[in-house]
């Protein structure tokens, strides 16, 4: 069954359904995504628009995520649903073989500066040594027919192709316009399920970006045996998925790696985090008390996990070197073997 979104306005405790006219031009939607890719809910850098392939096709928008993987975004526009699915698969067959030099040329033509600088400006870290290890396909539409939805589900679930549909619905009340967004399938679930066979095997270690700054302090994390993230669900969400027994490497942005430990408790709102001495975190003297901001709001509060530290370092002792793995994401799987090899002697990490 084709996806359909409706929107109601609450007016004096009465619901009023908003009209849903047809978007006058899907070029507007393409412009909006090109200008602010954040409306997709994905952390991507747009590196090209109307990119011409060797097969003489034109990819509406080409992006790159924080792992250096390519993202194809194709708008349905006036194409039939089945045509847009087939077309995106054709584009993927071209994208998978793009070299760094070719991707850099695409970025230069669109952004007017090189890929490395654009990546650093977007994600705040250097581009991975290897890019385009994986790619994903996003079909952008207001709706798809049920047959095409089944095809996309089949390609994703049975063939582990990273393909999904993002739906944008257009609403209007008077001169005020609204845009609604939803997904056919959870994009995070698909990404986890469809990791490329070319990927380096996972080490079993998690990289965690400490976020040391306005709302938390590495000194607090060390002293009270925790890690936290928050001030927005997109930051706290990843740390809330960690489980007891997970091994974590703490990274201090701009400094390097400062800690290796094991998760001892699943995430709770920071105000509810209890230390081993049976006191509450907030009852202790914190070097960064701003962690208490929004403490009653589940969406904005910091969420905290307990950590048994095997080894920690002072910030001025942080371990780093050129080419070491760093990532703007709060949590991600650490697969960069040169980084693991570098850290293992210092943190006494046992490798399989």
Describe the structure.
By secondary structure, the protein is an alpha+beta fold. The protein folds into 2 domains: 186 residues, Trna Endonuclease, Chain: A, domain 1, CATH 3.40.1350.10; 143 residues, ph1033 like fold, CATH 3.10.590. Helices cover 26% and strands 28% of the residues. A hairpin with a 4-residue loop joins strand 4 and strand 5.
> Can you name the CATH architecture of the largest domain?
3-Layer(aba) Sandwich
Instruction: Please state the average pLDDT score.
Output: 88
Alpha plus pi helix count: 9
The proportion of strand residues reads: 25-35%
Q: What string, H for helix and E for strand, traces the elements in order? A: EEHEEEHHHEHEEHEHEHEEEEH
* Sheet with the most strands, sense and barrel status: 6 strands, mixed
Rough outline: globular
Q: Into which percent range does the helicity of residues fall?
A: 25-40%
The strands making up the biggest β-sheet line up spatially as: 3-4-5-6-7-8
At CATH level 3, the topology of the largest domain is Trna Endonuclease, Chain: A, domain 1
Structural class designation: alpha+beta
Alpha-carbon distance between the two ends: 47 Å
Low-confidence stretches: none
Number of domains: 2
**CATH class of the largest domain, anyone?**
Alpha Beta
Radius of gyration: 22 Å
The count of β-strands is: 14
């Amino acid at each position: 069954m084709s996806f359909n979104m409706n929107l109601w306005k609450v007016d004096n405790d009465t619901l009023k359904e908003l009209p849903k006219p047809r978007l006058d031009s899907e070029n507007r939607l393409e412009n909006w995504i090109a200008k602010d890719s954040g409306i997709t809910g994905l952390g991507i850098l747009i590196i090209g628009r109307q990119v011409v392939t060797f097969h003489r096709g034109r990819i509406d928008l080409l992006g790159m995520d924080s792992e250096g993987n390519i993202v194809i975004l194709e708008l349905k526009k006036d194409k039939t649903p089945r045509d847009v699915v087939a077309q995106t698969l054709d584009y993927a067959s071209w994208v998978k073989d793009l070299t760094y030099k070719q991707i850099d040329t695409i970025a230069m033509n669109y952004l007017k500066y090189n890929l490395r600088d654009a990546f650093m400006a977007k994600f705040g870290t250097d581009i991975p040594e290897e890019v385009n290890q994986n790619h994903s396909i996003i079909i952008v539409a207001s709706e798809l027919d049920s047959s095409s939805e089944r095809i996309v589900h089949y390609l994703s679930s049975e063939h582990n192709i990273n393909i999904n549909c993002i739906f944008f619905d257009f609403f209007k009340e008077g001169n005020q316009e609204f845009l609604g967004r939803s997904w056919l399938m959870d994009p995070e679930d698909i990404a986890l399920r469809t990791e490329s066979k070319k990927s380096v095997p996972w080490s079993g270690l998690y990289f965690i970006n400490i976020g040391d700054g306005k709302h938390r302090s590495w000194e607090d994390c060390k002293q009270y045996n925790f890690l936290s993230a928050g001030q927005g669900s997109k930051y706290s969400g990843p740390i809330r998925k960690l489980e007891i027994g997970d091994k974590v490497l703490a990274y201090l942005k701009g400094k390097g790696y400062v800690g290796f430990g094991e998760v001892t408790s699943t995430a709770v709102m920071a105000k509810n985090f209890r230390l081993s001495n049976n006191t509450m975190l907030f009852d202790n003297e914190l070097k960064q008390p701003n962690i208490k901001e929004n403490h009653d709001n589940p969406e904005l509060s910091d969420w905290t996990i307990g950590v048994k530290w095997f080894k920690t370092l002072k910030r001025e002792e942080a371990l780093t070197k050129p080419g070491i793995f760093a990532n703007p994401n709060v949590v991600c799987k650490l697969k960069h073997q040169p980084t693991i090899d570098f850290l293992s002697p210092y943190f006494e990490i046992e490798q399989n």
